Amino acid sequence: MVRYFRLLRLFFRTELQYELEYRLNLLLEILQTAVVTATSVGAVLVLFTYTTVLNGWDLGAMLVLLGCFYLVQGFGELVLQPSFEKFMEHVRLGTLDFALLKPVSPQFLVTLRHFQVVQLAQMALGAIVVAVGLSRIPSVGTFEAVGFPIALVCGFALIYALLLALSTFAFWFVRVDNLMALYWSFMDAGRFPVDVYPGWLRVTLSSAVPIGVAVTVPAQVIAGRLDVAGLGLLVVGSVAAFFLASWFWRLGLRSYTGASA
Amino acid sequence: MIRIYRALLVAQIQAASQYRVQSILWMLFAVIRPVIFLAAWVAVANAQGGQIGAYDVRDFAAYYVALSLVLNLATSWNAYEFEFEVRMGRLSPKLLRPLHPIHYAVVENIVWKLTTIVPLTIVLVFVSITFDARFRTTPAHLILFVPSVLLAAVLSFLTGWVLATMAFWTTRVHALSTFWDRAGFIFAGQIAPLALLPGPLQTISLALPFGYVLGVPAEILRGGVNVNTALLLMAGQVIWVVVFYIALQRVWRVGIKQYSAVGA
């Protein structure tokens, strides 16, 4: 376990050094993230000039939700997107061999290998938006304070499981970029609570692509809209999704034939 | 010129038909964001008793369906590709040909729109039924919509090219186009119909080109403005098209002298 953390730190450090080579570019990208976040907050503020609650979510809770959206999306783009893109390229080129030969869990090595360090800025901005939203919520109890990080980690795990399952199809179909693009386009829907969407879209967002759950539930916890049972269900569901996706990945790995084999 | 365009069209249609699944997926991008904001506005309207300003729930539905169609018909994404071509030096062979590179982009855009219009319409009919959209469109609106969406497409194409041309000086225009896109996100009518933007934002939206690309044609298609207002708004579109046409000619002429393929 310790070894895995050390490896993770090493991966992160090399990517950070790489990014720091292009400092102006890094600065511009952080600025872009800031503009994107600010305009999204602006959009929510425009909606709230016409109402004080949106499906039972007041402005404070809504900002917490938007912050969670950027935390979850930022996590996805920080490590999952770059790693999974490389993974699919490895399958296509047959270079996955090199990862399989190393004496660590191949799933770990493939899925948490690459970082887009600049996305930490997106997560930081998300955290700021959460904090601003929190300042408008009168009181946060112990359960909410403890439950929130748990729910957020579950959200990360759900996104991880979903992307892992989707990218596993690369073992059979090689080119699955389109499937991943589908995921990113649905991701955008997470910026509003999943209960505002009509039937078919809500079902899609909470079961098939659990983006709605990953973003909405942490915000629900902190806004005091979720009980212990609900949180427990989320934890069980996320753990199950994680193991199911990992099992599916190993199943796919058996169909991998390697370079020019 | 017509013969050149016919040849380019045929070639581009053949190229596009190789990526059918891709084009349908990219089309979904044009639908998903409007549906997201439609759902949010429906929730807001319901919280306020079903009516916000002149819009009720079914008007919001009609507006966002129209917006989604306009988003697909009017927007182009040249800035991203052009940056790539300048950075990789791939623009050089195109410059040697006897045809201005802009024509390739025109044809690419036309073909993209033709190939996505049928699946998009099917999806939009589905969305209209789900949200029970009510269009107030009269035949006059439909007649005005055609030139209006054309103007919007030309305007968006020209602004995209002016932005892209900045790559001659900076090589990277990605940041610039992100800022432009986000301004469009706020001002073009995506987060709210133009009439519902708070005062100063609405002024900016109609004083700058943003509103004319999406919000104006969408309102005309939905029948949300009367004929006189529509004509006034279209005059605004014409003005901005002229401004950006002149700007592009100037910028291109100066920029092309500046261009030296990266690595050359």
In short, what is this structure?
The complex is a heterodimer of chains A (261) and B (264). Chain A has one domain (2-253).
What keywords describe this structure?
heterodimer, A: 261 residues, mainly alpha, two-stranded antiparallel sheet, 12 helices, 2 strands, B: 264 residues, 13 helices, globular
What number of structural domains do the residues of chain A give?
A: 1
Helix content of chain A: over 70%
Q: Please state roughly what percent of the residues of chain B sit in beta strands, choosing from under 5%, 5-15%, 15-25%, 25-35%, 35-45% or over 45%.
A: under 5%
Q: pLDDT below 50 for ≥5 consecutive residues: which ranges of chain B?
A: none
Query: How do the strands of the widest beta sheet of chain B line up side by side?
Result: 1-2
DSSP strand (E) fraction of chain A?
under 5%
> What's the N-to-C terminus distance of chain A?
34 Å
The helix/strand order of chain A is HHEEHHHHHHHHHH
Query: Rough shape of chain A?
Result: globular
Helix content of chain B: over 70%
How many domains is the backbone of chain B divided into? 1
User: Largest beta sheet of chain A: what is the strand line-up?
Assistant: 1-2
- Look at the structure and give the mean pLDDT of chain B: 83
Would you kindly provide a written description of the structure presented here, covering whatever features stand out?
The complex is a heterodimer of chains A (261) and B (264). Chain A is mainly alpha-helical and 261 residues long. Helix content of chain A is 76%, strand content 2%. Chain A contains 12 helices and 2 strands, in the order ααββαααααααααα. Chain A has helices at residues 2-20, 23-48, 59-93, 96-101, 106-111, 119-134, 142-168, 170-173, 177-187, 199-208, 211-222, 228-253; strands spanning 53-54, 57-58. In chain A, a hairpin with a 2-residue loop joins β1 (53-54) and β2 (57-58). Chain A starts with a helix and ends in an 8-residue tail after the last helix. The model of chain A has no long low-confidence stretch (mean pLDDT 84). The two termini of chain B are 32 Å apart. In chain B, 78% of the residues lie in helices and 2% in strands. Chain B has one domain. By secondary structure, chain B is mainly alpha-helical. The model of chain B has no long low-confidence stretch (mean pLDDT 83). Chain B is globular and about 60 Å long.
